[in-house]
Design goal:
Elements: H1 11-22, H2 28-32, H3 48-66, H4 74-91, H5 95-107
Helix pairs in contact: 1-3, 1-4, 3-5
Length: about 120
């Protein structure tokens, strides 16, 4: 069963998609709390960081709607975004870390670096 835009209205679905896309990124453990990048997890087992990013993306989206910059539904916007990331990572896997850095900045997340 394909995931539809309506499914992405649920932040847990978005969090799961973010995990699928970014769990192998260099800083996934630091940003999301990723511990089991190779394992499939149930939604209640998702690291909190993915849920935090999904909530932050909803907040950013709401601001864009209020400013008149966005007219799509949240689910459609996030499905389009995840589809775009998936295509980009398939073409160039090394772009994953750069896109994650942009996502962190967009969501206003604090990341503690060990470097």
């Amino acid at each position: 069963a394909r995931t539809k835009a309506k499914d992405f209205e649920d932040e847990a679905v978005l969090a799961g998609a973010l995990r699928l896309l970014f769990r192998s990124a260099k800083h996934a453990e630091v940003i999301f709390g990723e511990k089991h990048a190779r394992q499939r997890l149930h939604r209640e087992e998702l690291p909190k960081g993915y849920l935090d990013v999904a909530a932050a993306l909803r907040d950013v989206f709401q601001q864009q709607v209020e400013q008149g910059h966005e007219s799509r539904s949240f689910g459609k916007a996030m499905l389009d975004r995840c589809t775009s990331w998936r295509a980009a990572f398939k073409e160039d896997a090394s772009s994953r870390d750069a896109e994650l850095a942009k996502l962190v900045q967009e969501c206003g997340l604090e990341v503690v670096s060990d470097s």
